[in-house]
């Protein structure tokens, strides 16, 4: 199925499914004080549930990806939604920190199964430039998820207790089931993918890990995503702490990054009609590198907010073109093991970002330290960029 013939309802269904993971990571953030009071623990203890979620979603993807190649996308995706819904209901009943943390781990495990099935479903349908266009459109909807999630959580909190947030997440997962059955797994939406060979889970991962030309894309994605997660983790500290902005102003400053991501996303889709995915990825990563240099200058030369903001918008916004093209370039290598490949890419980005985000807690919480941590994360992506240029030049000279 070519991208031009992919109905918008299919794209929307896949994006809403993929959104479940990041959306449920952030929806309950405004409820931290209420959860802490209710369970009789500190907000610091409640924030442990974010780390638990990030690691469990990485682990869930590793298991679910290979299983979806073996048993089919529908079984694993639907099982993931069921696990997620049941865990959400358990968290909604939680009366202790242990139940909250355990529930979040199971919830994230189910979200991992759901999340990893979507890139594989895209890979089953389209390849190359068409896949990049589809990822780009889904990426835009994905970008909105973390941006709107806290507002949705606040709205639910205004109506009642924090438990309702998790009941709402359970309802979200259950409503996806009839949508997916109707749009993706029946009629025109159904796709017969390339027959996947019968292999064990370990053999599937060995196949992906021994496909050497694909591996730099894993490092590229993990590095760029970790840089973005570092910003998300400390955005409030940067804008409300360092620049002394009000909560309302913070929402607008945070949204500025999402607007820039959208611009890069639209630009990406226009350029895909003229340029290969890898070339756009290189250009977008160059834009990000320029933004990062400006950010370092802004932090260490004490630039005002009006000069700092455009640098941050360029650095974070370029992810709107970086991520979809990394996914498309990487999955191109795996026509029959798309699930396993997507799992490895997803688990690497969440796992690495989770570890680095946890380690960053011991560093000084100053603007300079935060920007420096972002630069260290991003530097690996820029090494992969340099490598891709060198490889490309070698290939041209060989011809």
Automatic annotation (TrEMBL):
Keyword Transmembrane recorded: yes
InterPro entries, per database record: Efflux_drug-R_Bcr/CmlA, MFS, MFS_dom, MFS_trans_sf
Gene3D superfamilies: Multidrug resistance protein D (1.20.1720.10)
Transmembrane segments: 7-25, 45-64, 76-93, 105-122, 134-158, 164-185, 214-237, 249-268, 280-301, 307-330, 342-363, 369-390
Ribosomal protein is among the record's keywords: no
Membrane-topology descriptor: Multi-pass membrane protein
Superkingdom assignment: Bacteria
Annotated ranges, domain Major facilitator superfamily (MFS) profile: 10-393
SUPFAM superfamilies: MFS general substrate transporter
Keywords, comma-separated and alphabetical: Cell inner membrane, Cell membrane, Membrane, Transmembrane, Transmembrane helix, Transport
NCBIfam families for this protein: efflux_Bcr_CflA (TIGR00710)
Family note: Belongs to the major facilitator superfamily. Bcr/CmlA family.
Protein name as it appears in the record: Bcr/CflA family efflux transporter
Annotated source species: Larsenimonas suaedae
Highest classification ranks of the organism: Bacteria, Pseudomonadati, Pseudomonadota, Gammaproteobacteria, Oceanospirillales
């Amino acid at each position: 199925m070519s991208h031009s013939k992919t109905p918008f309802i299919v794209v929307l269904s896949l994006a809403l499914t993929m959104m479940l993971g990041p959306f449920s990571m952030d929806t309950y953030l405004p409820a931290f004080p209420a959860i802490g009071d209710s369970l009789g623990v500190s907000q610091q203890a409640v924030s442990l549930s974010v780390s638990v979620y990030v690691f469990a979603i990485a682990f869930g993807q590793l298991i679910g990806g290979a299983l979806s190649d073996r048993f089919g996308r529908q079984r694993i995706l639907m099982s993931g939604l069921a696990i997620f819904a049941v865990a959400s209901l358990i968290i909604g009943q939680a009366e202790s920190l242990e139940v909250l943390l355990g529930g979040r781990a199971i919830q994230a495990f189910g979200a991992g199964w759901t999340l990893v099935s979507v890139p594989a479903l895209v890979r089953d349908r389209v390849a190359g430039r068409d896949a990049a266009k589809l990822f780009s459109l889904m990426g835009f909807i994905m970008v909105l998820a973390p941006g709107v999630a806290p507002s949705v959580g606040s709205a639910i909190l205004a109506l009642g207790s924090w438990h309702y947030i998790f009941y709402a997440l359970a309802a979200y997962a259950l409503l996806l089931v009839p949508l997916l059955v109707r749009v993706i797994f029946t009629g025109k939406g159904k796709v017969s993918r390339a027959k996947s060979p019968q292999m064990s889970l370990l053999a599937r991962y060995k196949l992906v890990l021994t496909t050497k030309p694909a591996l730099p894309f894993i490092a590229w994605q993990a590095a760029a995503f970790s840089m973005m997660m570092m910003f998300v983790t400390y955005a409030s500290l940067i804008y409300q702490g360092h620049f002394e902005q009000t909560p309302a102003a913070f929402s607008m400053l945070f949204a500025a990054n999402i607007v820039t991501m959208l611009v890069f996303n639209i630009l990406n889709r226009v350029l895909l009609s003229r340029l290969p995915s890898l070339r756009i990825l290189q250009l977008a990563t160059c834009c990000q590198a320029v933004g990062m240099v400006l950010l370092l200058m802004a932090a260490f030369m004490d630039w005002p907010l009006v000069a700092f903001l455009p640098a941050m918008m360029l650095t974070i916004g370029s992810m709107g073109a970086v991520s979809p093209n990394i996914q498309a370039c990487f999955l191109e290598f795996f026509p029959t093991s798309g699930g396993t490949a997507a799992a490895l890419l997803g688990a690497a980005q969440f796992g690495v970002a989770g570890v680095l985000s946890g380690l960053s807690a011991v560093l000084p919480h100053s603007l300079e330290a935060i920007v420096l941590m972002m630069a260290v994360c991003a530097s690996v992506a820029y090494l992969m960029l340099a490598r891709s240029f060198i490889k490309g030049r070698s290939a041209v000279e060989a011809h």
